[in-house]
Design a protein that fits this description.
With 112 residues, the chain is mainly α. The protein contains five helices and no strands.
Length: 112
């Protein structure tokens, strides 16, 4: 299999409007110390909750509440809201690509 196609796809993603918008929103959000701190804490909690889910364990209720509060605080700021929305749009594109590749390889998809 040629990896050149994957490299072209990676380049197309990096040149996409979604990626450009995400990087712009990220730069603006990270220039605000308060928002940058919220984003870092949000990412740590998000990863922890995802790992719990992947391990089949019930999420820690305290972490769920903290995650909800952090989400609200981020969406209440212009920079945080723009960052999260741009991240979601980019993740949607990457998810769609992954789904296409997974189907082509005839690998099972998780329907969760």
């Amino acid at each position: 299999m040629k990896l050149d196609t994957a490299r072209k796809l990676a380049l197309e993603i990096r040149e996409s409007e979604e990626f450009t918008a995400f990087k712009k929103a990220e730069k603006k959000a990270m220039s605000n110390e308060y928002v940058a701190g919220l984003i870092k804490a949000f990412g740590v909690l998000q990863s922890s909750l995802q790992m719990q889910s992947l391990n089949g364990t019930e999420p820690d209720e305290t972490q769920v509440q903290q995650f909800s509060r952090l989400s609200s605080l981020l969406y209440d700021t212009e920079e945080g809201s723009a960052y999260l929305l741009a991240q979601l749009r980019l993740q949607k594109i990457v998810g769609d690509i992954l789904q296409i590749i997974t189907k082509a390889a005839e690998l099972p998809l998780s329907e969760e």
